Amino acid sequence: MNWLDICALEEINVLGSRIVAGPKGDIAIFRTSNDEVFALDDRCPHKGGPLSQGLIFGKRVACPLHNWQIELDSGEAVAPDVGCAHRHHARVENGRVQLALNSAEKCA
Question: Which residue among 38, 76, 89, 98 is least enclosed by CB atoms within 10 Å?
Answer without folding.
Answer: 89
